[in-house]
Amino acid sequence: MDIKDVGYAFSFPLGSKERKVLLEQLRNKGDFRHNTDVLEKGSGQIVTWKQPSADASIKDYLPCPFCFGMFRKKDLWRHQSSCKTKQSCLKDQDDNQKNTRGRVQSRAASLLPIAASSDGCQKIINTMRQDDVSFHIRNDSLICKYGESLYGKHGRVRSRHQYIAQRMRELGRFMLVAKEMDNTVRGLEDLCAPARFQFVVNVAKRLTQFSPGKNEYGKPSTAVKIGFCLKGAVEVLIGQALMNEDDLSEKKAKKFFELLEKNWRNSVSITAHQTIQEKRWNKEDDIPLTKNVIALRDHLRMVEDEARAKITHQMNLRAYKALNETVLAQVIIFNKRREGEASCLTLDTYKKASTNAINEDIYSTLSPLEKELSKILTRIEIRGKRGKKVPVFLTERMKESINLLVQRREEAGVPAENPYLFARPGAMTNIRGCDCLRKYAKESKTENPELLRSTKLRKQVATLCQLLDLTEQELEQVARFMGHDIRVHCDFYRQTDKTFQIAKISKLLFAMEQGTETLRRNLDTLRPSVNGMYALCMFIATAVGCCTLHLFKYWLWPLESLKEHCLLLGGNTCLNCHRNVLSHRPRAGHRQSLAKVRP
Q: Residue 57: helix, strand or coil by DSSP?
């Protein structure tokens, strides 16, 4: 607090409004400095703007970024709407700054002290949800340093900031459970000792709702993630001990890391992975039908045309938003890209789209259709999962709409500093592809709109590739375009479709029951009276008996075919039943229409 500030406040007349506001602000600044010292030490009492009527926790309070008074988190937004200091501050700001919006609690959290981290990591912590988890993270130096190491690795990519926050919050939740089980625990570093390993395992089991009776986890994925986060944090602790030349801490951390490498797998990871796999069994994991994808595409194009017509001659913010969303959704559907990859496409990347000349040697081997496609599609390389380079194809229709969006960016209120192609007006972020797909899938009124998501569309490609009988080289090209390898393509994306299994594999099973003489070279050439009505008749015979079976088959097939199938069922014992059903045979025309289902 500066003496000049006090003198400036006393320069106003006694009882004046300006004098009261300035004195209150000075009083709040002094209280804020005291509160900061209390938070850094981890002990003491904070001074709030209003005395609470009952016992309250320090975690429930945040400072106002304008007057520095400590208010309850839930009431902070109400205070800022009438904060006198805020109103006086806004008078000195530009109109652009007056209209900016942000999360109230995240701005207030930026004033709180953080144990040890860089500016970038501090910003991630401040933008977290301000709850018990984030409060512990601020005061845990090892978690902050772990977050700083992640920021050094992924901080350049803004879309990875959420990943950093998630990893830090997982360790924060882990520490809250540890504190409940042992009051002496203060930070994550207290647990990084060989003698505390079993306690760490017990904390992880409690956090992930482990059931000893069933020997399974309620939250198995969290159990797996906690192991990775702990290893990363211990590696940071080892590096810190080496830099400080602390041999004792280094030795303890290395032994604890060795226990994580050797014993964590048997204690936690194996059972967690088994639980994850078992939960996937007999689970409905359908893929979207092609007709529903086409219906969604047609709906998107209709909305796109309407929006383009509105903003071509005159700017319309609602039409701009609709055009932005529909084009992004079409890019995801056409390329089968992950929604996060397409959403984060930058304006600079689009402007630097590949315009290289076509390789003449390769071009001469292409079919006429392939030659035409190579001319009309624009290829863009973007960042995919784990930093892999993945391509995106844009049609001429998409490019026309995107060029119109770029043309109208400034009029729509998109900040010049916003790097994204599909930018959100009035913000520095991009629109989310998952929201676009969810919104327009519901509007298109297709069957099962919940299946029209980017992950399901990617699984549809992998599953339908089975019908094309692709070579290994062709399958590798598809997998590389999707952004993974053949193993991931076949093991995780390709669905074991029940229709394919019943229709194809069951032929092999029936043929093997009838003997090796019915076997052929492949499944398509198998004709053991299984492909068609025989399989159905076998089920009917089991359920209702031979005579009803013959009656059903006699309605569909001529007498010669019926005798052949009866012989397959076991001989001449039931052939006399044909005479008993002659009077029940349908007319010739009806029988002919029914015969269409014959193999």
A: coil
Each residue's pLDDT tens digit, 428-481: 889 999 999 999 999 998 888 998 988 888 888 877 777 676 777 777 777 777
Residue 379: its H or E element: strand 378-383
d(CA 236, CA 231): 9
Q: Is the pTM of this model over 0.70?
A: no
Distances (CA, A) of 367 to 161, 363, 477, 573: 45, 9, 17, 60
Cα-to-chain-centroid distance, residue 353: 27
- For residue 48, the 8-state DSSP code is P
Nearest CA to 240 among 146, 138, 139? 146
Among candidates 536, 527, 581, 589, which has minimal Cα distance to 559? 581
Q: Residue 568, SS3?
A: helix
pLDDT digits (tens, 9 = 90+) for 20-57: 878 888 888 888 888 888 877 777 788 887 888 777 77
| Domains along the chain with CATH numbers | 3-109 (no CATH), 119-279 (no CATH), 290-467 (1.10.443), 513-597 (no CATH)
Q: Which amino acid is at 160?
A: R
With tokens 């590389």, the residue in question is: 480
